[in-house]
Amino acid sequence: MADTRAAFLAELDKVAPQLRDAFERAIQDIRSTAQARAIDEAIKRAIETGDIAGGVQQVVAAIQLGSEFFAPLDRAISEAFYQGGVWQLSNLPKRVSIGSQGPLIIRFDGRHPNAEAWTRRHSAALITEITDDTEKLIRETLTEAVEQARPYRRVTRELLGRTDGNQKTGALIGLHSRQARAVRGARRELDALDVRYFTRTLRDKRFDSVVRKAIEAGQPLSVADIERITGRYSERLLHARAKTISRSEGNRAMNAGRAEGVVQMIERGEILPEHVSKRWEATPGPRTRDSHRALGGAEVKWGQQFISPVTGAAMDWPHDEDAPAAETINCRCSCTFRTDWRAVARWRRAKEGLAA
User: What is the rounded CA–CA span in Å between residue 307 and residue 325?
Assistant: First the structure.
């Protein structure tokens, strides 16, 4: 199997759907177990009293947002890390001339303390990030509701969505706070019959004729129509977020697993650090940071860091946990780890006193 960026992306395509589904299951679980009546009362009280902080606290408590909801995502991240390590070691050459020691056979240890520590630490950080942003989403939604004295039951429906079979759909809960702002903006545009609504790329275009007819007639859309349209927009944004998380977190976990695979080979004494080099693989496209595009193709020895010629940031590899957040958030780059197997063979034969 060739260790190329194309081969890595093909492997990532196998784990990304599992991460996407795990995130969507977690969100559906949160929506379906939230205490709607308690949320109704909390929002109503906040609108009547203007106590936004108290309302946010009560809504968060009624949603019962906790790390336990994200257990499927936690497991999927661990599996992506494991698959990254397995894939890295599967790229060993079929035959390495290593003297009397026989063929080199190495298996990835997914239960190694380093491996378990990484997945535990990273999953916790991601889940904290999601829950903190969800609280921000609730605060912004409730602030608007208080300022505009909106009907509290309508706000609850927007937060939790509507029941569709055994699922809740069209909810703000599960979106990033930026996406929730987009949904609220779309609602305001529909309320005002504002043609800027049509610039929203992820809107459900099946409703365009309904919106266009209302604008041309100057007749306001019904509350039911607006909720249905914004609900579909919200669901599309949720799917987009799930896809983004699956790609970015899958990339991050698999790259970390690949690095751990190399570490395990070194720790077992199968190779030396000087046998390994690292190559930065920048993702083509306008969304790639200039600082990462400049690193594309750069190669350093194991133990050395990549230094961005643009920002001066030092990184062990893409998604380096010790790098500044500005260098890692939504990074789509990857790293190829190359082992000089001829040098490994010479070293191993020399250890046996054999001629190189």
Answer: 15
